[in-house]
Amino acid sequence: MESMSSLSTDMELKTEPFVLNMGPQHPSTHGVFRMRVLLDGEVVVDLEPIFGYLHRGIEKLAETRTYTQVIPLTDRLLYLSSMACNHAYVRSVEKLAGIHVPERGEYIRVIMDELMRISSHLMAVGFFLNDLGCSVYTPLLYMYREREKILDMFEMVCGQRLTYNYMRVGGVSGDVPEEFMPVLKRFVAEMPHFIAEYEQLLAENEILLARTKGVGVLPRELAINASASGPVLRASGVKWDIRKADPYSVYDRFDFEVPIGQVGDNYDRYRVRIMEMHQSLRILEQAMRQFPAGEACAKLPQLLRPAVGEAYGRVETPQGEMGFYVVSDNSIAPYRMHIRPPALLNLTALKDMVVGWKVADVIATFGSIDIAMGEVDR
Amino acid sequence: MASMLEGSGLGLLKGMAMTFRHLFRRRITTQYPEQKLTLSKRFRGYTLVWDKERCTGCATCAKSCPQGNIEIVTSKGTENDYVVEKFQLDSGRCIFCGLCVESCPYDALFLGMEYERSSYRRGDLVLSRDKLLFTPDKQRSAYARPKLEPGLPRQTLLIEGDTGSKKR
Predict the structure, then answer these.
(1) B79 and B124 part of one domain
(2) Which residues of B fall within a CB distance of 8 Å from A73?
(3) Which range marks the domain in which residue B25 is found?
(4) Which of A142, A159, A186 has the CB atom closest to B42's CB atom?
(5) Fewest 10 Å CB contacts: which of A88, A234, A314, B161?
(6) What ipTM score was computed for the predicted complex, to two decimals?
């Protein structure tokens, strides 16, 4: 140390913080997210997220469209969990207009939501491991394989693999075809085996443990204060899940648990997602057993004109609580629509999670939040 | 960190044994241009198929389009009906949500099964009346048209180990 200090006085070697611009065009920022990171050497001192590169004004666009025409817009929010976004929107419109959904429609929605949760968590975990960078690209490809099976099922029911536009006010756009249930049954039976495979691949991987345990801790109090939700909140040890706390659809009929983490580090966020997949499979199993006959969609006029009023409907998307606040002025289009974005609010806690860690951990922590820029910027 | 990596390798080796076993698994990939998958019966494909005989020119499809993308021009016919003079849409602006097909009260509009949509000019993406016209060689999707479903081939499913057949 002595020689170092004498060197710096002799040669007047000064160090100063360095501003690093990460993104918006960067493969690990999951879209077009930009962070201005203040670095001391390789250690993060401060971080400022800069939003808005993918702003498309979806809330404003909704005001010029009829209630049904807004549904394709919601596909483009959290594009890795579009079904859940559809569900959140149609639920708030149903609340607004006081529409009752047939039971079969509710069960189809729950099945789609849970399949979506598995698929989204597979991608979240896969890309998180990919962001860690250290030779863990393989699990991502394995997870793509299982996601493909889910996408096959979505393609079967609604004809698309990414922008489903499946849910309608009052139900779903079309009943599930005959061949859907056997495929779902087979998927639910096979999936635990594949999750066990990921466990074997990752659970004891020393590199993964060293990179994730204790990194990017989000303390319990801070998580609550930052209005985090979903796996990010639950990893910090808060047992909060809309499906349990404010049961919507037919979730009160299923027996499942809400997995939580202990410390709220990257490892916990990854673990919570893996455990949630098991719970989703449990829900799917019960939903298949209870699956009722009947209509999938209520009979409604093509143009909805809800009475003057407002409603807020929320669902638990794979990323957290997503809500739509819709105001009606008795016309065919919403007077105002506001979105409560789960990923954006989870992202606001990023700074507190990464200060004191290195640049590589910023990327890993960012990946562990699981965002989609389509929804952050809207 | 050093203590965690101490005596390590076991967890990594376990993972590697896993990946090694994958060498002997069935192939799940499809050699795309040579091999093709059979699409879902409800596939929302690139093009729309328009049945001239059934269409009355009511323009419900145009009203239901979130993009305002369908252009219809009609004129009064001789027998108290309408003649559709122009039926056109720009597939470059279309989001293929299928709301137009769902809303059609006369089952005159269908989604197509095509999906290879690249072209050299943007103008080629505009689908005019003649390109949309239904002919027997065009395959129509069963999206929102459940009557067509029995006539369409079964979708290839990865879960059944199916990776597409040699077509072409």
Answers:
(1) yes
(2) 66
(3) 2-29
(4) A159
(5) B161
(6) 0.84
